[in-house]
Design goal:
The chain is α+β, with helices and mostly antiparallel strands. The protein has 20 helices and 14 strands. The strands form four sheets. It has a five-stranded mixed sheet. Bound molecules: beta-D-glucopyranose. Beta-D-glucopyranose (BGC) binds next to loops. Belongs to the bacterial solute-binding protein 1 family.
Length: 416
């Protein structure tokens, strides 16, 4: 402890030579996300650092990553960037990001973080990114008043989902709030994959791209079921953002939303309460599994000793119990540090923590394919394109989709 304090003091002492503003590139532009980000600004301000926010619109962060690449190539990266999954290692391979080994050792990150955090955020056994949370992707959000009014119970599996959706449809209410964007569609597709066929199938199809499975009848059925959802959605020709979709669900323009728990950040921002105003439930058929998505920050290397110290100081703040508690209560996610007290969190976050621990023990913890956690960015992009094409072009058959999937699988095997 003493050592940690001493080194923090050294860090603070050497930091002013670099100036006190830090630019962060990110895609947190919704109300809940901005509230959470404000917690980071507060935490840094307490250390004399001013957070300069550079937001890039687009849920899921695909556009932000394109901007980040362009800036890095132009030699003008921000000091700090929000990033997810295997992309972290790509940046580390290129030598762009700060090595956080000393702060990680000092703060005992290896012990205090779950294995998934170590796997995602390390390169050659050194931490190169600071993780702040765990988002669960396979959630179902349901407007309680809408369900009560129609005397319905939220669905626990996909058969129930279609039954409930049909009743809503007959009353003129779309069951699902969604914006027609590749990223949102891909989340729906992966949650459906898991809910229909379970975690082994999810892993074999969307992470391993197992050839036998790609050609399997189940995969044909998966695509067909995905298309069956179309009549039960808010206008599928509109490309609304995910937070607009949440607003539609809140206003009762749709009954449910299938999205990660960043949705809860929006609901909390609107002062809505779980159980009373909305239900947070596992997505149909996925109660025993946990699709995760971890937000991390990389700190770009500025080749001076002061900037190295600054990187350590920032990392120290990001991976601290106090910050992760405050931040995650706003963000909708749960802290990634194992030792954060969950008492002040709401019932959804507590349920998420329980589900995470259960999934860790039972080998049903799954990285999100659509949210950049499972496969390299080029593959993720190819998958998003395929899912988007299939959904939006009714003349594109399941057989064509599967032959496209075969090509993606072949490139996965070639590159591994
Ligand atoms: C990120 C979340 C973010 C969501 C919507 C996900 O990729 O992990 O932090 O809230 O995108 O923008």
């Amino acid at each position: 402890m003493k050592r940690a304090l001493l080194s923090t003091a050294l860090v603070v002492a050497s930091f002013p030579s670099l100036g006190n503003a830090v630019e962060l590139l990110h895609w947190w532009t919704s109300n809940g996300e901005r509230e959470a980000l404000a917690e980071l600004a507060i935490a840094l301000k307490q250390q004399g650092i001013v957070l300069k926010s550079s937001p890039v619109h687009g849920g899921g962060g695909d556009t932000a990553m394109t901007v980040l690449q362009a800036r890095a190539i132009a030699g003008n990266p921000p000091e700090m960037a929000l990033i997810e999954g295997p992309g972290i290692q790509s940046w580390a391979t290129l030598g762009f990001v700060s090595d956080l080994h000393s702060v990680a050792i000092e703060q005992n990150w290896d012990e205090r973080l779950p294995d998934i955090a170590t796997n995602i955020n390390t390169y050659k056994s050194h931490f190169v990114a600071a993780p702040v949370n765990i988002h669960r992707v396979n959630w179902l959000w349901a407007n309680r008043a809408v369900f009560d009014e129609h005397n319905l119970t939220p669905p626990a599996n996909w058969d129930e989902f279609f039954a409930v959706a049909q009743v809503f449809k007959s009353q003129g209410i779309p069951a699902l709030a969604i914006g027609n964007e590749p990223w949102q569609l891909a989340i729906l597709f992966e949650v459906l994959t898991l809910g229909l066929y379970g975690s082994d199938y999810y892993r074999d199809l969307l992470i391993e791209f197992d050839d036998a499975l790609v050609m399997n009848n189940k995969t044909v059925e998966l695509f067909k079921t995905f298309r069956r959802l179309k009549p039960y959605m808010t206008d599928p020709s509109v490309s609304a953002s995910w937070d607009n979709a949440t607003l539609n669900m809140v206003k009762g323009k749709a009954a449910m939303q299938l999205q990660g728990d960043w949705v809860k950040g929006e609901l909390s921002y609107m002062s809505l309460k779980p159980k009373q105003d909305y239900y947070c439930l596992p997505a149909p058929g996925t109660a025993n599994s946990f699709i995760y998505n971890v937000d991390s920050f990389v700190l770009f290397r500025l080749r001076t000793e002061a900037s190295e110290n600054m990187a350590n100081q920032l990392a120290n703040t990001l991976v601290s119990s106090d910050f992760q508690s405050r931040f995650n209560q706003k963000k909708g996610s749960i802290p990634i540090l194992k030792d954060v007290d969950m008492t002040p969190f709401d019932i959804c976050a507590k349920a998420s923590k329980q589900a995470f621990v259960h999934a860790e023990v039972n080998n049903t913890l799954l990285p999100s394919m659509s949210d950049s956690m499972a496969v390299a960015p080029q593959l993720q992009e190819a998958m998003l394109e395929l899912i988007n094409h299939y959904f939006n072009d009714d003349t594109f058959t399941e057989e064509e989709a599967i032959s496209q999937l075969m090509k993606i699988a072949a490139s996965v095997h070639f590159n591994r």
